[in-house]
Amino acid sequence: MSIKITINHALKKYGSFTAIPDLSLEIKPGEFFTLLGPSGCGKTTLLRMIAGFNTIEGGEFYFGERLINDLDPAKRNIGMVFQNYAIFPHLTVRKNVAFGLQNRKLPKEEIKEKTDKFMNLMKISEYADRLPEKLSGGQQQRVALARALAIEPEVLLMDEPLSNLDAKLRVEMRTVIKEIQNRLGITTVYVTHDQEEAMAISDRIAVMNQGVIQQIGTPKALYQRPANSFVATFIGRTNLMKAKIWVKDGKKGLSFPSGYRLEMKNLTSVQDGQDVLVSVRPEELVIERVGDNKDNQFLPGKVEYSTFLGLNTHYIVEIDGGFRAEIIQESMIDDIIENGTQIELSLKAEKINVFSEDGEVSLVK
């Protein structure tokens, strides 16, 4: 049965250092919820507090209506998958998967039935009698996941489970994990620092920095409407550009140092002349034409270099006297624009994000 996880005003300290000052969130029943952020941001600390491996200096943690602050980890009915797999090297695949079931002293027939079920689910039945040393990294991670799921936990916790795998295996395993989680409907909390991985598998993501949640949302919401410049730069790639607000005749927009002006219909309360930070994704900068335009209809730039990557071509462009921006364009049959070429750009006004000068507050509806 899927359960809700509620955290109210969590506090975690290590001596005089406060790792998590005051954190609250709610994870829905059956949700795949990811804690995402740079190393040292507190995501693994929070996961270990949910698991019961770390002490809780303040706040309340609930599984459904049950307060778990002082509950022994073994009694929380959680499954845990670690970065280093943590499977027993001296036990076969079958015995690894059955380990938690044996600890619960279930009947032998039930242990065999559940062990077979989850080995089949993870497609590792053919390796049942092998020792872990005879398995690849991806196969070992499947064993760890099968062992965690075999006990049919209420909550599945995963701490950087794919970081030790190569790129191809990571993509394969994240697909497996998402498919299994969807099929079982188990409430899952997943920790990673890889934003692409988080976006590929999550229902919702909490972006963390220095123990504070910056924003919670779907991958689409975080990418398209980040709450601040930290989220904008951590989720995907972006160009941060300085501009000023103009307000005239009931209209609002952005004015760039080159003189290029862009009307925007989705700005919140702003003032004429206000300094702002503009977040423009590489695909939101559009090369309109080649040439040296002087009428400020477009944003002028100069191609520094390009990289052809098949489907897309990436350009690094100098804009406004020294600022370097990345542009991603669908590759065309025509020749790639040569280095040093003057170009003119437009911005997709409905997609770009505008923040206060310090980057802390979004000014887009």
Describe this structure in words.
- The chain has 365 residues and is of the alpha+beta class.
- 23% of the residues lie in helices and 35% in strands.
- It has eight helices and 20 strands.
- It has helices at 43-51, 93-103, 108-121, 137-150, 167-184, 195-201, 219-224, 229-234, and strands at 5-14, 17-27, 32-36, 58-63, 66-67, 78-81, 155-159, 187-192, 204-209, 212-217, 239-248, 251-255, 261-263, 275-280, 285-290, 299-308, 312-319, 323-330, 342-347, 353-356.
- A six-stranded mixed sheet has the order 6-7-8-3-9-10, sandwiched between helices. It has a five-stranded antiparallel sheet with strand order 13-12-11-14-20. A five-stranded antiparallel sheet has the order 15-19-16-17-18, with no helix packed on it.
- A hairpin with a 2-residue loop joins β11 (239-248) and β12 (251-255).
- α2 (93-103) crosses α3 (108-121), α2 runs parallel beside α4 and α4 (137-150) runs parallel beside α5 (167-184).
- The longest helix is centred in the middle third of the chain and has 18 residues, at 167-184.
- The two termini are 38 Å apart.
